[in-house]
């Protein structure tokens, strides 16, 4: 009797040289990565970057042009979708409208010939996990969007797949519910220990839930790492601007000072730790996140790295912070987010200011990134 990979395959998800082409277009371009068993992994990127195509190839809904996909030692590249140790939760949930919630969840178990007693035990268990045991007899159209989302997850995990694939699973929910579901999905993943592979274009969603994020661009992984690593030490302007916002200022490395690079930015000398640099030559972009800047009226004391001669060109008060646009002498506007956690007066439009920040809060990109960053 053949071994059923849908229940027996276990281990890391291993993708080797995975490529998908449509005519001349490379949707996924020679992708290789290992997703450790039991991790929460996010594929993050804009529309058309290849993330959903990658997910569909893992699920068996698209055929790779070349490359391989394995779970542990089991090669699933050419396996039929229903034989794979994989379940998918889609944005539209795809619940059966004519079946009760109990029978929606039980569907996969019944198809595998699981006994009635075991079906009841397993369905009750996952309904309790998603905290909706009271809805077992209802139909999907009697549930809210958030409840349908949880039932779709319950239906997917009751079969104990090695992998749960989430395709923009929270896209149809409103913002408040989406944030609540982010926390709940992370908790469910921790509870059951199944590998979650989550596709999203929403950076906050990826950063809230995933242990590891792969940022995709043009069918390739641009950078992969923990949320903190990608945010604090992006290696390209694409990653710097896709996760949050970045001020990228062109400059030239003029020397070394111990563990720091000395960089000239339009006449201002600044220091950046060498470990925060991914530059190859002396022509660089220095990146500073808007919330890392300190802004003060001209003439007030400033420490660390300092840029002088700025003029406030716009002020937006948004409760927790005030956002300033500051026009610099070289004609570029820099963005500053100042926390509203003191009783200092707000700076006004037209006021002359000095910007400062601690060296450790900057990163350095290669000068070849200038064209793609929009810096000028």
TrEMBL record:
GO terms for cellular component: ATP-binding cassette (ABC) transporter complex. The keyword ATP-binding applies. Keywords: ATP-binding, Cell membrane, Membrane, Nucleotide-binding, Translocase, Transport. PANTHER family: SPERMIDINE/PUTRESCINE IMPORT ATP-BINDING PROTEIN POTA, SPERMIDINE_PUTRESCINE IMPORT ATP-BINDING PROTEIN POTA. This is Unannotated protein. SMART domains: AAA. Residues 13-243 form the ABC transporter domain. GO terms for molecular function: ABC-type putrescine transporter activity; ATP binding; ATP hydrolysis activity.
């Amino acid at each position: 009797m053949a071994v059923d990979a849908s229940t027996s395959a276990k281990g890391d998800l291993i993708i080797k040289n995975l490529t998908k082409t449509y005519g001349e277009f490379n949707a996924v371009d020679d992708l290789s990565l290992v997703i450790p068993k039991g991790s929460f992994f996010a594929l993050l990127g804009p529309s058309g970057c290849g993330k959903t195509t990658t997910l569909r190839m893992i699920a068996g809904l698209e055929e790779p042009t070349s490359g391989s996909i394995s779970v542990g030692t089991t090669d699933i590249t050419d396996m039929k979708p229903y034989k794979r140790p994989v379940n998918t939760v889609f944005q539209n949930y795809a619940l059966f409208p004519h079946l009760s919630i109990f029978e929606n969840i039980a569907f996969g178990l019944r198809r595998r010939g699981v006994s009635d007693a075991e079906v009841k035990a397993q369905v009750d268990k996952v309904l309790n996990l998603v905290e909706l045991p009271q809805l077992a007899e209802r139909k999907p159209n009697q549930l809210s969007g958030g409840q349908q989302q949880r039932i779709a997850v319950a239906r997917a995990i009751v079969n104990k797949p090695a992998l749960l694939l989430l395709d923009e699973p929270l896209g149809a929910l409103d913002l408040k519910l989406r944030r609540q579901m982010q926390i709940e999905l992370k908790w469910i993943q921790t509870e059951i220990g199944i590998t979650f592979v989550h596709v999203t274009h929403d950076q906050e969603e990826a950063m809230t839930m995933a242990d590891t994020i792969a940022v995709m661009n043009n069918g390739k992984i641009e950078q992969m790492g923990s949320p903190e690593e990608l945010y604090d030490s992006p290696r390209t302007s694409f990653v710097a601007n896709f996760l949050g916002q970045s001020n990228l200022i062109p400059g030239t490395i003029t020397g070394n000072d111990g563990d720091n690079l000395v960089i000239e930015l339009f006449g201002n000398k600044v220091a950046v730790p060498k470990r925060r640099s991914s530059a190859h030559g002396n022509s660089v972009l220095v990146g500073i996140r808007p919330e890392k800047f300190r802004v003060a009226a001209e003439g007030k004391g400033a420490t660390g790295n300092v840029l002088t001669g700025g003029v406030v060109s716009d002020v937006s008060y948004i409760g927790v912070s005030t956002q300033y646009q500051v026009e610099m002498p070289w004609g570029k506007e820099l963005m500053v987010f100042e926390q509203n956690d003191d009783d200092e007066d707000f700076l006004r439009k037209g006021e002359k200011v000095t910007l400062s920040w601690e060296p450790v809060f900057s990163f350095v990109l290669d000068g070849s990134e200038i064209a793609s960053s929009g810096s000028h």
